[in-house]
Design a protein that fits this description.
Blueprint lengths: L2 E3 L5 E3 L4 H50 L23 H5 L9 E2 L6 E2 L22 H5 L3 E3 H11 L5 H9 L8 E5 L14 E4 L5 E3 L7 H15 L7
Antiparallel strand pairs: 1-2, 3-4, 5-6, 6-7, 7-8
């Protein structure tokens, strides 16, 4: 910025030149390009911490349930993409008696859910299904998380395994399956993850919430071992 003098010899500041303005704008642009990724990373870190805290809260409800049900996980179907069917109750309704939070319920339109903590992961913001207008998963399913034992229980019921909940619970409590979650994000919402699936999970052995293990490296052997032990704990001989 330059100064100029009037007829009385008094110096007055002149306006910024175009070059000076362009330099200032360039400096601001550089600073924003440096700060924006850091701010985005901070926001995602906050979402992930909140997501883990919500999983931990649901874990408290599951632990309370197991304390009153002979240490057996709830016999409910997987939550993702379908309503509970048959005689199995909804995990959401079941845990409503063990968690001090409102159970997700359909909104006034009867199509989508109205949910609050701990059922919602804050990173679950936009869905991938055009049929639901890309609504987040918690809006279509009532919860952002998947109940992994429900997948195993569904498979066990299809194979006519007796004592389904007991067999699945005993299987998942074995040390060799400690990397398997009880609850996990239904989708890969956390881009900060550098290796393995970017999902938060809740674990049965110590009710710890953390990143998911990368189960893809286990392949079919993992599922074969799982179902073999479920057959065994269910009192049945696994098929050859």
């Amino acid at each position: 910025m330059r100064k100029r003098s009037n007829s009385l010899g008094i110096h007055r500041p002149s306006a910024f030149t175009l070059i000076e303005l362009l330099v200032v704008i360039a400096i601001i642009s550089v600073l924003l390009s440096i700060l924006m990724p850091a701010l985005a990373s901070a926001r995602e870190s906050t979402r992930r911490v909140k997501c883990l805290a919500n999983l931990k809260g649901i874990g408290v409800g599951l632990a309370n349930y197991m304390n009153t049900s002979k240490d057996v996980l709830p016999l409910v179907r997987p939550l993702h993409g379908e309503e509970p069917s048959g005689n199995d109750p909804s995990l959401l309704d079941l845990l409503g008696d063990y968690i001090d939070a409102a159970v997700p319920a359909r909104d006034a339109g009867g199509v989508y859910y109205a949910s609050t903590d701990p059922w919602v992961c804050p990173a679950d913001r936009v869905g991938k299904d055009s049929a639901t207008d890309f609504e987040p998963v918690w809006r279509t399913d009532g919860i952002s998380y998947e109940y992994f034992p429900g997948i195993l229980m569904f498979a066990a019921e299809m194979m006519m395994i007796r004592n389904t909940a007991e067999a699945v619970t005993q299987t998942l409590m074995q040390p060799k399956f400690s990397m398997l979650p009880v609850l996990m994000d239904q989708d890969d919402w956390h881009p900060l993850r550098k290796k393995g699936p970017p999902r938060n999970s809740l674990y049965l052995t110590d009710w710890r919430s953390d990143w998911s293990a990368d189960l893809s490296v286990e392949g079919d052997d993992l599922w074969g071992d799982l179902m073999g032990d479920i057959f065994r704990f269910g009192g049945m001989i696994p098929p050859p």
